[in-house]
């Protein structure tokens, strides 16, 4: 059995904005609070055996500190980075221009495909004189699976890379549990399922990444705007996934590997910094 805790990074130092691929630092005091909470839990029977994180500093900083202090293996996964929001990535909402949505929407939709062939830097240069219009971002919020921001990653591509990385992560963890079981058998130790403690993994990631993983496990529609708008994942909150019966997968059936054990969401957006049992 495997337990994976998905913790969203703490708040960042920048103004309110869509921070996707933009590498922005976390608030130091909040990061210190998260680190202390993790260290406290590590002294209990809920101790982690490994840490995985996005390479962006708002996730990586605390993950690296925690792994180092607890002497745990740390793995970085670039595919677990937040969605790339193109020209709007890292741009403070206060810097956007409030324009007429109805007048601008048609122009935006007509030019979206053409604009996306340019690099993000080139597109930002295009908007140097005319600031980015709020209407484009609002259109994306209302239909994230249909509207592609200039220079941005599509929601479908984002979903695909995150779930592929998630499945690879599970496969790696299952393989490690299976290896440990074999080692115990060879050492003539008891391997009764009821006596084995679950392998516990800490994953520090972004809000969008965690939403995609939860939607995948719960078989919910990740294309719906409501899923991204109504599921509130507070900074520093914890969501927990339980992987059970991981030993049934055949090594010769890689195609259906991740369908042969059960994934269950046991907690969503728990206030981890306030303490959990």
How would you describe this structure in keywords?
alpha/beta, Rossmann fold, 2 domains, globular, His_PPase_superfam, Phosphoglycerate mutase, His_Pase_superF_clade-1
Task: Describe this structure as you would to a colleague.
This is Phosphoglycerate mutase. It comes from Colwellia ponticola. InterPro entries: His_Pase_superF_clade-1, His_PPase_superfam. It holds the Pfam family His_Phos_1. The protein folds into 2 domains: 2-83 and 155-274, Rossmann fold (3-Layer(aba) Sandwich); 86-142, no CATH class. Mean pLDDT is 85; it is low at 102-122, 125-129 and 246-255. It is globular, with a radius of gyration of 21 Å. The longest helix has 32 residues, at 155-186. β2, α2 and β3 form a beta-alpha-beta unit. α6 (155-186) packs across α7 (207-218). The chain is built from 8 helices and 6 strands, in the order βαβαβααααβααββ. The chain has helices at 28-42, 57-70, 101-115, 120-126, 134-142, 155-186, 207-218, 225-230; strands at 2-8, 50-53, 74-76, 199-205, 238-244, 262-270. A 6-stranded mixed beta sheet has the order 3-2-4-1-5-6, with helices on both faces. It is an alpha/beta fold and 277 residues long.
Give the assembly state of these chains: single chain
Judging by the overall fold, what is the CATH architecture of the largest domain? Answer: 3-Layer(aba) Sandwich
CATH class of the largest domain, please? Answer: Alpha Beta
Largest sheet, in brief, is: 6 strands, mixed
Rounded Rg: 21 Å
Order of helices and strands: EHEHEHHHHEHHEE
Uncertain runs? 102-122, 125-129, 246-255
Q: Order of strands across the biggest sheet?
A: 3-2-4-1-5-6
Structural class: alpha/beta
